[in-house]
Each structure stands twice: as C-alpha cells, then as structure tokens.
Write a structure and sequence with these properties.
The protein is an alpha+beta fold. Helix content is about 35%, strand content about 25%. Strand 38 (about 830-835) and strand 39 form a beta hairpin. Bound molecules: ligand ANZ. The site of ligand ANZ has 18 residues, from strand 11 and strand 15.
Length: about 850
C-alpha cells in the first residue's frame, strides 16, 4: 500500500496554516472566547522535550476549543531577558541582543515544526523596546500608586556573579548559578509592595476552583498567615531602654521563657555599634545568608547583652537578652522570646548557652513530671507549671485565653503576620529592563518623563567579567535634561517582572500607547487555561497575581484580579540514565545495543551501566533532541507519543520503542484511510447495518469526555481501539454517505492530537466541515440484548436479539433454535411467561 509521506504532508500543512492565518484570533466581542496559554520559553536556542510536552498539551486544547466554535487566543512569546544571554556575551564576546534574536529565530522554526496552532501575529519578546517600554510605564504607574519604593536592605549577595539573588535563588546557602557561598550585604534596592495584598492573594485562592490543590497549598504556605500576638517585656538596663516587644504565635508558653533574642538589625543594635565583640558577631552572622532556609540550617549563635527582660506574667522571672543569628528583622518585630522546651531552635540555642529549659506543655494531664530534654515538644496537650494558665487545653484554649489575659492587662495585643515579603526587583545586571528612574545631585529619585520612554540599554562593546556593566557605561549613565545633570538608575528589573504581565500584552500586542487596551483585556482575560511546569507554582504565579492586583488598585476600569482561571501543571519527560565504566554520564546517542546489552558506540568492549529513569536534564546527559525526532518520525508521531502512556499531569517515560510504535500507528491509520477511500468508491446502495454509526458515536463520546478532563493519554488509547474496531467493520457494505459521514467525524475528533494527518485525510475526503461533532446520547444504548430462556423454570439458553422484541417474534426464534428444539421436543407449550427484554419461561 501507499505509504504516508509525513515529511511533505506536515510541512505543506504548516505552510498552509501560516499563509491562511488559520489560527489568528479575532477580537470579535460577540463570539465566546477561549484564552489558552502555555508558559512562554526562555530562548535558549533549542527546544527541549519539556517544551514539546507543554506546547502539545496546550495545542490539543486550543485546537479542540477552536473546533468547538470558540474564538481561541493561543499566542507565543519569548522570555528573552536574563542571565544566559549575558553569560554568553561575557564568555564569547557576543552581543546579547544578536545572540538572543538568533536563538529566537531557531526556536521559532523548531516550534513551527511541531504544527502548533499558534497565532504568530501576536508574538512578543520581553527584551524588545516595544515590550519593555510598557513595563517601564507600569513601573512608574505603580510608583505613583505608592506600590514601588526604594529602601536600604540586606540582600543575598553572590560574590562571584556580583549580584543580588532572590531568596529562591539561594540553595543551601549558595548562589543557584555560581554555587558561591552567599553573603549578606546592605544595598539600596527597589521593591514592589506585594505584602500590601497578602490578604487578597490568600483569600482569592478560594475562588480558583480550576487550580490544582497542591499549587494553592504552596501559595498559601508561601503567603504564610500567622495568628498570634505582640507581647511587651519590661527591660532592666542602664541604657535608656524600657521595653522590648516580640511577636509570638505561642503566648501560652510564656512561663517557659528563658531568654529574649533580637535580630542584629534590630533598632536596639545601635547601642552596641561601638562594641568590638558585637561588631565581630555581626560579621559572623553576615555569612549566614538571608533566606529562612539558610538561617534555619546554620548553627545558632548569640551575643549576650547587658539587658535583662522581665516576664510579663510573673515579675520575678528575669531572663537575659541576646542578639541571635536566627532572628529575622523583616518578620514580626525582629525580636522573639525563647521557650526552649517547645521550640527546637530555642532549645538548640539554650543548650549552647546553658539556659534554663522549663517545660510548660505536657502531652497528658496525668504526666506532670514530663520534661523536655533533647527534643522540643510542639504537639498538643495541656499547660502546666504555669500558675493561672495551668490545665488549659493546648493549643485550642490556651493561646486564645492567654491573648485575652494579655489584652485585658494591657501586656500585649492580638496580631496577624504574613510571611510574604515585599518583592525586591533590583538586579545588578545588563541584560534586563532598565528601571526608568534618574537621580538628581542630591540623589533623589525622579521619574523619567513619559515621552522619554522606553529607556533602552546602551550597546556595549565588551562586557566585563564582573559587576554591572551599566555602572561603567558613563555616556549612558550621565544624562542632561533641560540643562540639569542627572544620573540614571543602573539596576535593571528582575526578569520575573517581565513574565508577570505578558499575558496582558498578548491581548493587544500592537498598542503603542499603553501595555494593553482595556477593552481587549476585558474580552480576553482571564486566561481560561494556563499550562506549565509546577516549578513555577509559587513565584511566577504569585507575581502575576500581584501584578493584576497592583494594576486594578485605584483603577475602576480594571477589575479582573485573577489572571489565570484554570491552571494545569504538567509532569516531566523522563529518560533512563547511563554511565560508563568511569562513572561519567553518557548520552543515549553515544550508545548502541548488542544482544540486549548496551555498549559505547566508539568502544564496544565497554558495557554501559543503566541507571534509573529521571527527568531529562543536560547535566545527566539523558536528553533527547526533539528536532531530530521530529525530522525522523514527524510531528504527529511525536505529539501522539508524548501524550500516550501517562496522564499529562504525571511524568512520562521517553523511549525509542515508544516513538517508533507511534510512528507505525500513524502508518496504520493511513491504511485505514485508504480502505475507507476504496470502500467509498464502491458506491453501495444500502448499509449492511448501523454498526459504523454506533461505533463512531461511542468513539466521539469517549474522546469528548477525555478532552474535557485532560485525560489525553486515554484518547490515544481510544484511537487504538477505534482503529481495530473500524478495520473489522469497514469490509461490510456501507453507502458512500454513511462512510463519509462517519469518517469525517472521526477525523475531526483526532484533529487536536494529530492535526497534519487529520487535515490531509479531510482534504482527500474533500471535506470542509470543521466543527466539533456532537454525539447522540440516545444512540449510546446498545440495541442488542441477551434474553434468558427457561424451560420449566430451568435455564436452557441465552438468545441475543434486538431490544424490545415481541413475545411472538421471540417464540419464532426459539422454535428455530437448534439447541432449544431438543429440549422442546415438539411438545406443546402449556404456558409462556414473558418478561420484556429479560426472560422467557416456557412451561411444557
Ligand atoms: C515564642 C514561642 C514559643 C514561639 C514556642 C514558638 C514556639 P510563624 O508561625 O512562622 O509565624 N518568631 C517571631 N518573629 C521572628 C523573627 N523575626 N525571626 C525569627 N523567628 C521569629 O512563627 C512565629 C514564631 O516564630 C513566633 O512564636 C516566634 O517564636 C518566632 F514554644 O514565640 B514563637
């Protein structure tokens, strides 16, 4: 039979779709819309299997919705600012812009080869001035709204990359890229006031019904709402200090108090600034980094002050006051009271400095001798050793009652705290969006006038290996406006800012005045389905949610506050890992299989050790290049394979056999198509039966349901079933009309999965109908039923027949049935008991 020539066919369709602008979304406000968005890629220059999976999943949905008659927006863009371009520029003396643009061109052609239904007319790139001009406008808009500010702040400083790192870029106290030990350094930084929206960001999670629960939980924890109170401690001191306030979630453990601890950045540190020992201590603390994780893991160290604190619940209990490295200045009040028995950090600290450990919660009221030694007790129980608090159930009653007592006696106040910190957006980088601010001679920040936007990056001949190149670009940095001299801000924006609003830009990519047109946004937003990796569950999604809050703040026209109505997080693409005899990673391409064993291609005496399957990564060399796979097997085979086997939210195992079998399956479908064509040419007058209609109807139901539930892997299984059933059916006689009608529906149903194949078959069928076929619910009931036949009450047979058969018709069938005839033996029927569609009992 004639083979399916995927190479020609796929490219032909891709060109056709592009030429016809098949997937261009129209802002047709009378039509119902569907905004389908996959997280946009960083243009590294090569797509990887993660992209293939992400974009295939999104494409299936976009095509499906489009066939259902929605006006679909399915755009693509490039998250094109960031470190790799800058690193490439430093290492190879390239221009980051040229490097980035050529990568975009390469990746775009690779994505096109996947046959994605993307509206390329809306393509955006965050490093282009047409894009970041509006980002600079937003920055200034937020500045006017009081949502942007500058402050001196300790930052995570990467001494190798010479830059500030976000907390999430610090892993185990080291820079995520350089691996250098991160230091604390005080710098003047720009911040977005995301904290202001903590309550909204938390509350709105309840409205996101189409988000995975795990993501909502991660966001909730990140926002971290804590209920507690602020407690005042009287201080005995020769200095002019009378009180220290601490935030606590456990006021009920106050009788277990054995010390107070302050952050080294606490305002009271000013009394010790001259003290050499304190200076040294502070230095030591600065090597801990600023993330909660690194602080939690670091050894607890303290500096003992000459202050004494008094327990507010009992004036006779007096304890020392320390500065300690585990207290953060930007949480609560930068001061904590230490209760070693019920907090592990406090216990570690108390042991180190030989402080008291007073147990005040017992798991069991019978056990009043309970004493904490090596491990803090944080579980439930009852308060004891605590005077008037004794016997309170902990935590249900004890916390609330203690807060009430503290409030009544003016010793403390109820307080809610959020873990979420303001978003530090300054980066000491070249390849990012310039911050549109200048400073006058007194170092006052001033907004760049709107008509001077965008602030573009200066071209730089050679990027220095360290530091921020913009600091050294004097011609650019010094600027005169109306004969007055200014200096430009040389920090650029965190690239997370670029991706926090790109989904808005897709709604009006051409608008030169503003980042978007409000009517367009009101039509398209929110994104109906957002698809991406779970690694962005916290920051990217939270920042995007913040951006919507910030834009809608003090803006009555803008009132869509949640950007993503539906969220889908797809699983990883995994592959076996391989190592050679020296434990070096080996890539699948360097291996050949001989007699079932794997060897190095260039040295067949060396056997390869096969390791577990892990998510594809360059470091483990277990990646497969999509480009090669597409050119060997075609885009439809790749799409089919990447959707098969596992549900889209789970990991999928890449295998050579898998992709080959997808490829072969498409060939089989082609044969089925040829068979249909032959049968159509037969031009039969009548249908043998209605089996084909019925089968198509059931197939449509399954595919529709599986598309609606993101069970794309099940659709692949449905396709296989369909193939085997139809191949049997097709030899019967069917009229041309029946054949075309059914095959057309099937081809449309498989279009979202294997669009090139489907489009080609439709073309051959001369079919132009392109709307999602509805299935007939009434036809789903099977017409054939089985009726039990009894003779004198004993089961003697089972007859398969049409539903609703009459008593007389059934009697005729029984009389002609070879097996039953034997039992009946020409005897006369005394009586018949007939239960429609179920049973016939013949009494003889
Ligand atoms: C006394 C106490 C006793 C505490 C006890 C816990 C257990 P969450 O739930 O995360 O909000 N804390 C307060 N401010 C802090 C700061 N700036 N740096 C480091 N730790 C700080 O945690 C609140 C608890 O974290 C507070 O409750 C406080 O320690 C500590 F048995 O107060 B607790």
């Amino acid at each position: 039979m004639e083979r399916y020539n995927f190479k020609e066919i796929e490219v032909k369709w891709q060109k056709f779709w592009e030429k016809e602008k098949t997937f261009s979304a129209k802002v047709d406000r009378d039509k119902k819309k569907f905004y389908c968005l996959e997280m946009f890629p960083y243009p590294s220059g090569k797509i990887h299997m993660g992209h293939v999976r992400n974009y295939t999943i999104g494409d299936v949905l976009a095509r499906y919705k489009s066939l259902q008659g929605y006006n679909v927006l399915h755009p693509m863009g490039w998250d094109s600012f960031g470190m790799p371009a800058e690193n490439a520029a430093r290492q190879n003396n390239l221009d980051p812009k040229t490097w980035t643009e050529s990568n975009i061109a390469k990746m775009k052609s690779q994505l096109k080869r996947l046959g994605l239904s993307i509206d390329w007319s809306r393509e955006i790139s965050t490093c282009s001035p047409q894009y970041f001009k509006h980002q600079q406008q937003f920055f200034l808009e937020l500045y006017d709204k009081g949502l942007v500010y500058r402050k001196e702040e300790y930052v995570n400083w990467d001494p190798v990359d010479q830059t500030v790192l976000a907390n999430e870029q610090v892993i185990d106290g080291k820079g995520w890229r350089s691996g250098a030990i991160v230091e604390r350094k005080k710098l003047s930084q720009w911040f977005f006031n995301i904290k202001k929206f903590s309550e909204n960001l938390l509350e709105n999670l309840n409205t996101l019904d189409k988000w995975p629960n795990k993501v909502k939980i991660m966001q909730k924890n990140w926002i971290g709402k804590s209920f507690g109170c602020e407690v005042g401690f009287k201080i005995e001191s020769e200095k002019n200090i009378s009180e220290i306030k601490c935030f606590t979630t456990r006021p009920d453990t106050l009788f277990g108090l054995s010390f107070l601890a302050l952050s080294v950045d606490h305002p009271l540190a000013k009394y010790y600034e001259e003290d050499k020992e304190f200076i040294n201590f502070k230095k030591k603390c600065s090597t801990t980094g600023t993330t909660e994780e690194s602080i939690a893991n670091a050894e607890k160290i303290g500096f003992k002050t000459d202050l004494t604190a008094i327990n507010p619940l009992n004036e006779n209990i007096k304890v020392p006051v320390y500065f300690a490295n585990f207290v953060l200045m930007d949480y609560g009040l930068g001061a904590v009271f230490g209760c070693p028995a019920h907090d592990q950090r406090d216990l570690d600290f108390a042991k180190k400095y030989s402080l008291e450990i007073n147990t005040v919660v017992t798991p069991n009221l019978d056990d009043l001798n309970f004493q904490v030694k090596d491990e803090a007790y944080t579980g439930p129980g009852y308060i004891f050793n605590s005077s008037f608090l004794n016997g309170l159930k902990c935590p249900e009653d004890s916390i609330e009652k203690t807060i009430k007592y503290l409030e009544e006696n003016k010793l403390g106040e109820k307080k809610i705290n959020f873990r979420l910190k303001d978003w530090g957006i300054s980066r000491q980088r070249y390849w990012g969006c310039p911050i549109p601010i200048i400073y006058d001679e007194k170092n006052n920040p001033i907004k760049i006038p709107d008509e001077m936007l965008p602030v573009e990056l200066p071209a730089i001949e050679k990027l220095d290996p360290s530091g921020n190149p913009l600091d050294k670009a004097n011609n650019w940095k010094n600027i005169t406006i109306n004969n007055k001299k200014y200096i430009r801000e040389t920090d650029t924006l965190d690239t997370f800012v670029d991706s926090s609003w790109y989904f808005l830009r897709f709604c009006s990519p051409e608008n030169n005045e503003y980042g978007f047109d409000i009517d367009d946004v009101n039509y398209w937003m929110p994104v109906d389905q957002y698809i991406g990796g779970v690694e962005h569950a916290i920051l990217h999604l939270l920042y995007s949610r913040f951006f919507m809050q910030a834009l809608s703040f003090k803006n009555e026209k803008f009132n869509i506050v949640e950007p993503f109505e539906g969220l889908f997080t797809q699983g990883m693409v995994c592959h076996e890992t391989y190592k050679d005899h020296e434990n070096n990673w080996v890539s699948p391409e360097e291996i050949e299989t001989i007699n079932g064993k794997k060897y190095l291609i260039n040295d067949q005496s060396r056997e390869i050790k096969v390791g577990p399957s892990e998510s594809m990564s360059k470091s483990k060399k277990n990646t497969i290049d999509p480009e090669k796979i597409i050119s060997n097997y075609g885009a439809d085979s790749v799409r089919l394979f990447i959707l098969s086997d596992s549900p889209p939210e789970k990991d999928v195992q890449w295998s050579e056999e898998g992709i080959i079998s997808s490829f072969k399956f498409i060939q089989k479908l082609w044969n089925l198509n040829l068979k249909f064509t032959q049968q159509i040419q037969q031009n039969h007058n009548d249908d043998d039966d209605r089996e084909l209609d019925k089968y198509t109807n059931i197939f449509l139901k399954k595919v529709t349901e599986n598309l609606d539930n993101f069970s794309y892997n099940k659709i692949v299984a449905n396709l296989h079933e369909m193939y085997s059933s139809l191949f049997k059916q097709i030899d019967k006689k069917y009229t041309k009309k029946t054949l075309i009608n059914n095959f057309e529906k099937i081809l449309i149903a498989i279009n979202p999965i294997i669009p090139h194949f489907s489009s080609e078959c439709m073309r051959l069928l001369k079919s132009e109908k392109m709307s999602w076929p509805k299935y007939d619910k009434n036809q789903l009931i099977d017409d054939k039923i089985k009726i039990v036949i009894q003779i004198n009450g004993k089961k003697r047979g089972l007859i398969e027949t049409n539903r609703n058969i009459s008593e007389q018709e059934l009697t005729n069938i029984i009389n002609n049935n070879e097996i039953l005839k034997k039992y009946l033996d020409k005897q006369t029927f005394k009586r018949k008991i007939f239960i429609k569609n179920k049973l016939m009992n013949i009494i003889i």
